[in-house]
């Protein structure tokens, strides 16, 4: 038996040696810098550790080019994981400096205007789901790709080193093979010009990954057994650092993983946070409760506008089913919303040409929580319902209020400075709300109501009306039959161009505002 175990270990050791030798040859073959994607999970840890050890075995005069280890911080990472990643990045860089290795570590983050909370609370994006997974591009792919593009601009070409493996899934294997060139270790990057992909563990299986991590100590002092324990407790994997839009789908959602975003709503159940809480980290339960509430309100029609962000009104065909001689409108299950049957008689049924008159008669505001029980006949006489757009401004305020309350009451046992939403995000959201017609400047009031203090808000010559003036303006619009939101939008556009000698683009913006679909039903 001992002979069999020894033979198996030797085979694994040979695989590791072969991987390190290939890394050395590839590293020395040209002067293109490397960028290693590190997520904090098992596969990316193996890659960084193998590269680190391979470079240690090279003579110092052959260490001629930089290796950049990058990790994605979406700003909504699971708290303990981002803390672990920060610690590891610091240890890698410290050890590299000590050994005089050309390795640097970096964290890439989304631009503030593309952060998760700015998109949801500021712009009103519905929380991501499988059909509308807008988060991966904005929070992961774009920041990583920008880092790579900067290196391409500086050096001409760059090599991405990733912990992708063919045995992860058939889809992943097909993607890897489709980008491979026979006899070459480098693969073409599908979207980035002058960028190539190197996958040093592409032929490792899961057992070989863990065999290496548990038998070879981390050169920078991490505990790989602790990493194994996290996986064993959660029964799930990591959220990879995605740098290629073509492998986004093969990467899957991160909600089932231990190394994803704490607020992931792409999946029905967040196993990441649940796993930590079940392991004794009860302080994170408010995060799970908030995540579940956010997922539950996504398809709540009273919290969504009834037109898209560009003002377009659209219609969703509805099914009608007869049950026991009575017609019912079928409301399909979506996300946490249950399937429902509503008697057809509860709806008003109108022609599309009658919609504007119907809305005016019933004083219905499509940008508010108003959800008229009305079905519209299309050209084929199918019954349709108004489609949903962004979260209403009121819903966005509600989400912010609850998020700030969770932040106020949360006690992170290892980080007194931990924030769920950053100050720069709050300031960006404030600007977006104002441009969406929040002339009352509500965000500082919400913040003060939760924390009892103010941030250092920027003071400018904003076009802010007091409550009485806003009320008078709204009454005038009603009397004259004008859309109040449109009037505020036109005032904002004019303000933006005030003081410019050449006001190029003014008429285009005014025209765009006046041509919004919901104004011309």
From TrEMBL:
The residue ranges of the Phosphoadenosine phosphosulphate reductase domain are 35-265
The residues that cross the membrane are none
Listed InterPro entries:
PAPS_reduct_dom (IPR002500), Rossmann-like_a/b/a_fold (IPR014729), Sulfate_adenylyltrnsfr_sub2 (IPR050128), SulphurTrfase_DndC (IPR017598)
> What NCBIfam families does its record include?
DNA_S_dndC (TIGR03183), PRK06850.1 (NF005316)
What PANTHER family does the entry give?
Answer: PHOSPHOADENOSINE PHOSPHOSULFATE REDUCTASE (PTHR43196:SF2), SULFATE ADENYLYLTRANSFERASE SUBUNIT 2 (PTHR43196)
Q: What's the protein called, per UniProt?
A: DNA phosphorothioation system sulfurtransferase DndC
What gene is it encoded by? dndC
């Amino acid at each position: 038996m001992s002979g069999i175990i020894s033979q198996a270990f030797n085979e694994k050791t040979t695989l590791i040696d072969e991987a390190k030798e290939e890394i050395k040859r590839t590293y020395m073959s040209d002067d293109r810098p490397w960028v290693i994607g590190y997520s904090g999970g098992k596969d990316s840890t193996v890659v960084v550790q193998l590269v680190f050890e391979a470079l240690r075995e090279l003579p110092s005069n052959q260490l001629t080019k930089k290796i950049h280890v990058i990790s994605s911080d979406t700003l909504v990472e699971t708290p303990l994981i981002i803390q672990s990643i920060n610690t590891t990045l610091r240890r890698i860089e410290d050890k590299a400096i000590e050994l005089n290795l050309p390795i640097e570590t970096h964290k890439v983050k989304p631009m503030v205007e593309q952060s998760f909370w700015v998109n949801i609370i500021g712009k009103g994006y519905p929380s991501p789901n499988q059909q509308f997974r807008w988060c991966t591009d904005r929070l992961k792919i774009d920041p990583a790709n920008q880092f790579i593009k900067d290196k391409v601009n500086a050096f001409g070409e760059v090599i991405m080193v990733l912990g992708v493996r063919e045995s992860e899934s058939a889809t992943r294997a097909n993607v890897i093979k489709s980008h491979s060139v026979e006899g070459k270790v480098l693969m073409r990057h599908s979207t980035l010009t002058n960028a190539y992909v190197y996958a040093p563990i592409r032929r490792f299986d899961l057992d070989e990954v863990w065999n290496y991590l548990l038998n070879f100590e981390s050169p920078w002092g991490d505990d790989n057994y602790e990493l194994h324990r996290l996986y064993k407790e959660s029964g799930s994997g990591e959220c990879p650092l995605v740098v290629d839009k073509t492998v986004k789908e093969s990467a899957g959602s991160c909600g089932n993983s231990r190394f994803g975003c704490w607020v992931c709503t792409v999946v029905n159940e967040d196993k990441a946070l649940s796993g930590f809480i079940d392991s004794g980290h009860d302080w994170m339960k408010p995060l799970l409760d908030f995540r579940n509430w956010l997922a539950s309100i996504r398809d709540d029609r009273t919290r969504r506008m009834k037109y898209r962000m560009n003002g377009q009104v659209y219609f969703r065909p509805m099914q009608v089913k007869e049950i026991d001689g009575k017609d019912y409108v079928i409301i399909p299950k979506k996300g946490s919303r249950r399937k429902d049957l509503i008697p057809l008689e509860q709806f008003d049924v109108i022609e599309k040409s009658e919609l504007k008159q119907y809305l005016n008669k019933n004083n219905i505001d499509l940008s508010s929580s108003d959800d008229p029980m009305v079905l519209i006949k299309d050209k084929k006489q199918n019954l349709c319902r108004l489609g949903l757009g962004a979260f209403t401004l009121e819903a966005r305020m509600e989400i912010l209020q609850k998020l700030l309350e969770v932040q106020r009451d949360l006690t992170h046992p290892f980080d007194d400075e931990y924030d769920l939403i950053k100050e720069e995000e709050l300031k960006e959201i404030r600007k977006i709300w104002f441009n969406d017609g929040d002339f009352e400047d509500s965000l500082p009031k919400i913040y003060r109501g939760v924390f009892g203090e103010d941030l250092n808000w920027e003071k400018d010559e904003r076009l802010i009306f007091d409550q009485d003036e806003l009320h008078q303006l709204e009454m005038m619009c009603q009397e004259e039959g004008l859309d109040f939101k449109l009037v505020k939008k036109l005032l904002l556009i004019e303000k933006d161009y005030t003081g410019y000698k050449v006001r190029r683009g003014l008429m285009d913006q005014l025209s765009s505002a006046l041509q919004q679909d919901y104004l011309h039903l």
